[in-house]
Amino acid sequence: MSNDMTAAAVQQQIKVLRMLMGSMAGGAIALGVVAMMILPQSDRIVPSQLGFCILLSVIGGIAAWFVLPVIVKPLPRGTPRPVSDGMARLQTLSLVQAALCEAAAMILLLLAFSADVHAIVVLSGMGVAAAAVMINTWPTANRLLRVRRRLEESGARCPLDELAVRNS
User: 56: part of which helix (H) or strand (E)?
Assistant: First the structure.
């Protein structure tokens, strides 16, 4: 690991990932607020529409949760730069997961412009989509450990979680 990423470099990449995922979550909320401002207000909130919007966002979040084994392939034993490769796979995973959650938000936005849906209903669904982005992509210690375990299934050593919290 002498030619691989240092703890400081991993921590910097984690900071960048946090900024990106926070921006993606905030984008869903911003779209909901914009939709609320420009859409004509419906007369009433229909509970089935509210349930559908929230359910759609939850489904996007659940789909995002289950893509880890598909996106993150184990690193082969003897990988020359396991931490760099692991970080790249973590970033790819985070972007794919955020895209799945955001897809639900985009469908809600299309629904808002094509059907008579109260803007608060759309904003509620966007809020759930934003929460799904944060739950699925925020690089917590548990998330880094899950990714590490997946990366190390073939025998490589990739201590992303240790480097992310190490004082440099």
Answer: helix 47-65
Beta bridge pairs of residue 155: 76
Residue among 150, 147, 131, 46 at smallest CA distance from 90: 147
- The pTM assigned to this predicted structure is 0.88
Who's near 132: CB < 8 A, 6+ residues apart? 57, 58, 60, 61, 64, 101, 104
Token pair for 132? 């799904």
CB atoms near residue 111 (< 10 Å): 18
Helix%, strand%, coil% for the chain, nearest 5: 75, 0, 25
Structure tokens at 54: 């929230």
Cα(123)–Cα(92) distance, integer angstroms: 28
Instruction: Output the CA–CA distances (angstroms, integers) from residue 61 to 77, 89, 133, in the order listed.
Output: 32, 19, 7
Domain ranges in the chain? 7-165
Contacts of 101 (CB under 8 A, 6+ apart): 24, 28, 57, 60, 61, 64, 129, 130, 132, 133, 136, 137
Cα distance between residue 110 and residue 138, in whole Å? 27
pLDDT tens by residue, 142-157: 999 999 999 999 999 9
